[in-house]
Amino acid sequence: MSLQFNLLHTTDSGGRRARIDLPHQTVETPVFMPVGTAGSVKAVPQDILESLGAQIILGNTYHLYLRPGHEAIRRMGGLHRFISWNRAMLTDSGGFQVYSLAQLRKVTDEGVRFRSHLDGSSHFFTPEHSMDVQIALGADICMAFDECTEYPADRARAEESLRLTMAWARRSLDHFRAHQSEVSWFNDFQGRSQSLFGIVQGGMYHDLRRESAERLVEMNFDGYAIGGLSVGEPRELTMQVISEVLPLLPKDKPRYVMGVGYPDEIEQYARMGVDMMDCVLPTRAARHALLFTSEGRLNIKNKQYAEDQGPPDPNCDCMVCRRYSRAYLRHLVQCAEPLAATLNSIHNLSYYLGIMQRVRADSVSQ
User: Fold this and answer.
1) How do residues 195-217 score in pLDDT, each as one tens digit?
2) Do residue 237 and residue 314 come from a single domain?
3) Is position 222 annotated as part of the catalytic site?
4) Is 92 tagged catalytic?
């Protein structure tokens, strides 16, 4: 049995409050998912993530396949056990990372040949291989192998990318359904299994996006994602694509927008009816000394904070804002102390997770 989706409330703007019952966790939505690329949300320990209220995190198939290797993780009891994370987890397909290796890859109907960014070794990813890797990792939610369309892309390029994505979605689903029961440790969950989401592509062409969504829905995935966004397009185009696709997706299954975005964006998309979002931005910005606060973005490196004894965000109750000053955080950055990345990341993640908590509360009150 795959995930169970329970829609609890809807709002006039299309927002939704729901629960996704997964083997490792019942996830309250809308939800923001911190990105743990190589089995680690950068600079933040798992117990801190738990204290912040993170319900589900991401693992990256491409990076974990390269090291330590999916078979090694399988032998150690799966990714949850390997990284000591007992809550829910989603793995991406590796498609976006392979897409980003534009100079090191060759795409064919069968799959993608690419060279490792680590040592230049050659590898071949097919939809079937992506499913095998994700099944071995053992995440609660897996993603179909897709071909991400860059921006800008002309019509012919977007059509070809969509053709590959649809063919690969079918192959991903068929292989996943045939092999998803092969993860022995899921027997502990009384018949529960991993779930698979399809990914809507089609570039910025609304008719191609509609075609992609409709064909994926016919395949009957466990949930649906909107991919190929935040690849350089203007924000208004991102909004248009999401607005176009959401009404085409089933109301009784999770809806996930991949790789977005800034705090105001994730709030806006959640209020439109997006159930799940992820982004590396909270931790990436933190490593570059950028904090998201109720008063706007704050570059803690700025000299004006050298003797500022106030908290990073006076309206935030996170463990960082309760204890540390702007002056101290700036000092850590200036000294290149590793603690700077940790504290900045904790604050930013708390801010993002707090947005979703507020949207969930608002959806109930409406």
Assistant:
1) 999 999 999 999 999 999 999 99
2) no
3) no
4) yes
